[in-house]
Amino acid sequence: MSMDCKFESALEIFVGKWKPVILFQLFTNGTMRFSQLQKAIPDISKKMLTQQLRELEYHDIVNRKMYLQVPPKVEYTLTEYANNLEPVLNAMWEWSETHLKHLSELYGEERAQGDRT
Amino acid sequence: MSMDCKFESALEIFVGKWKPVILFQLFTNGTMRFSQLQKAIPDISKKMLTQQLRELEYHDIVNRKMYLQVPPKVEYTLTEYANNLEPVLNAMWEWSETHLKHLSELYGEERAQGDRT
DNA sequence: CGGCATCCCAAAAGATACTG
DNA sequence: CAGTATCTTTTGGGATGCCG
């Protein structure tokens, strides 16, 4: 097993289109309900959100707490193990800020905000 | 455009199955030829490697230098702008180390090295 | 050597409808 | 509210062959 493979398989746990965004939300807001996450991430479908949360849960990154009541209520929190991911998420956040400025410089400030076309 | 969307679109530039691994290689080794990258990342196909490199090039993360000679020689390097990604890659690397230890603790040291089954 | 073009299959993900 | 189930579409990515 090569070094890259280990690196890659460790990344699989949280990279992808949605996981960083979900994790970022949970890091920022702490405990969140399913519907809260949906609102916070409008472009994700219910199916995807469920699926991604299940995978994160499987890998001991998020905790799922279900209240047996009507209507149902499910809360998601980060596990203690997820704290190890905080530096990555922070670095990603910094990068996204930097990248946005980069785009502004390339295409002009006003475009970067309105984002037409 | 929501905050998440900006975050997400910034991530799109380098997350995915292969980009972090490619970037990690370039950060570690500096300038690399196409065939060097192929050797370093055995599981990637020529097609994928080309494709991922083109996308990284498009986003000003890697630089492609082509020598007009026979046989051809193409060298890839990171751009200056790519330095902004270094903290992310480092954090990812740290995480992968941490995660590997985590697995060792769960399943035992010897298994984590030999990795049978 | 470092690609690109084409074909093809499998996996991912969207849409919609239904449920405890 | 927080999901499943099903179906369909889109995408990812492997295999092969050709080319400058």
TrEMBL record, chains A, B:
The alphabetical list of record keywords is: DNA-binding, Transcription, Transcription regulation
Q: Which domain of life is it from?
A: Bacteria
What Pfam families does the record point to? HxlR (PF01638)
InterPro entries according to UniProt: HTH_HxlR, WH-like_DNA-bd_sf, WH_DNA-bd_sf
Residue span(s) of domain HTH hxlR-type: 5-104
Looking at the UniProt entry, the stretches that span the membrane are none
Q: Which GO terms describe its molecular function?
A: DNA binding
Q: Which protein is depicted?
A: Helix-turn-helix transcriptional regulator
